[in-house]
Amino acid sequence: MNKSILIIGGAGYIGSHVALEFQRQGWEITILDDLSSGCEENLRPDYRFIHDSFLNRPLLKGLLQEGFDGVIHLAAKKAAGESMLKPELYSEQNIMGGLGLLEEMAASPSKNLIFSSSAAVYGDPKYLPLDEKHPTLPINYYGYTKLCFEENLKWFSQLKGIHYVALRYFNAAGYHMEGAITGLERNPANLIPAVMEATAGLRDKILVFGSDYPTPDGTGTRDYIHVQDLALAHLQALQYLQKGGDSTSVNLGMGRHHSVFDIIKMTEKITGRKVPYEIVERRPGDAAEMYADYTLAQKLLAWDPQHSSLEQIISSTWKAYQHKA
Fold first, then answer.
1. CATH of the domain at 88
2. Residue 98, domain member (yes or no)
3. Does the predicted model carry a pTM greater than 0.90?
4. Residue of 13, 47, 142, 291 marked active site
5. 108 and 65 in contact (C-beta within 8 Å)?
6. Spatial separation of the C-alpha atoms in residues 281 and 211, rounded to whole Å
7. Alpha carbon of 164 to those of 77, 222, 306: distances in Å?
8. How does pLDDT run across 231-285, given as a tens digit for each residue?
C-alpha cells in the first residue's frame, strides 16, 4: 500500500522541494495551498492539489479523516519585519491556524506532524553554536508565533497523541540542484534571493544593514542550509516518527556561517557580474553572528547534508534566476 503525505503549503519555495523529495521516494502527494505565496508551476501533474486555505476548517477536517501517514505544516507567514507591523495577520495564520490544525488532527487518524519551525525561537544568541537547550526568547512576533505553536505541540502530544518533529530552520537557501524546481519566490525578503534579483537586474540594489559588526568583514554572519538538504530532513523526520521516535524539536543548519559580503563575493564569482549594494544602518534586533549545532538532527534523524556549501547554494540559486536576467 502506498504511503500518503499531506503537505500544507506545498506549492511554496520549501514546500515544493519537500514534495519532490517525498514523491521521488514513492509517496502519494496531496498538497493544500491557497497560492498566496506559493507558485502553481511548482505543482506536478501527478500531485493531488487542493487550492484552498488550511484555515478552512471543514475542508481540513475532511482531508485529515483520510488518515495520512504524515502531515507537513509549512503554511506560516514568515517575514519577521512584517510581523512587528501586522501581528494580527501572524496571530491568525501562525497561531490560530496552527491550533485549528492540531484540533482537527487530534480528532482524526492522521497523527504524525512535521512542523516548519525556525531558529527565530531562540532570539539573541547567549552562546554559539546554538543548540536545542539554548533559551527560547524570540525578539520578534514571528519568532514568538513559532514558539507558541511548538509549545502547543508539546501539550497536544501529551494529551491527544499527536507525534511531531519541529524542525528549527536556520537560513534556507538554494534551489534544486537538477533544476527540477523553477517557480521563484514572490517578493523575497531573505538575503540570497535579494542578491539574485539585484544581480539579474530585477531590483536596483540590495541594502547591507551594518558593516561595523564584530565579525571578520564587519557584516553579519548567518548559517545557510540548502533547501534540498532541508527537504530530505522532513522525510527523515517522518521516518523517525514512524519507527517510534519521541516527539522533539531539532535544529537544521550547517554549523558554519557566512557574512553578507561572503554572499556578494561568491555571487560575483559565479555570475561574473557585479552586485549593486548600499551600506546602511544596522537593523534593530539583528545579531552579529548566528549558527547552529545540528548534532541532534544527525543523531536522531541520521541527517547528512550534501548540498550546502556556499558555492552549491549560490550556483543553484543563480541557475533558477538567470533566465530572468
1. 3.40.50.720
2. yes
3. yes
4. 142
5. yes
6. 8
7. 20, 27, 25
8. 999 999 999 999 999 999 999 999 999 999 999 999 999 999 999 999 999 988 7
142 is annotated as an active-site residue: yes
In a domain, 10, yes or no: yes
Q: For residue 77, what is its C-alpha cell?
A: 507567514
Distances (CA, A) of 84 to 75, 78, 89, 112, 136: 19, 11, 10, 31, 18
The H or E element spanning position 99 is helix 97-106
C-alpha cell at 72: 507537513
Contact 20, 180 (CB under 8 A): yes
Cell representation of residue 277: 549594494
Which residue type sits at 312? Q
Which of 139-143, 166-170, 172-176, 181-185 is the least confident region?
181-185
User: Count of domains in the chain?
Assistant: 1
> Residue 279 is inside which H or E element, if any?
strand 277-280
Which residue segment(s) compose the domain that 125 sits in? Answer: 4-173+225-252
Q: What's the rounded Cα separation, in Å, for the pair 22 and 24?
A: 5
CB distance 25 to 235 below 8 Å: yes
DSSP state of 301: H
CA 254, 257, 172, 99: dihedral to nearest 10 degrees?
80
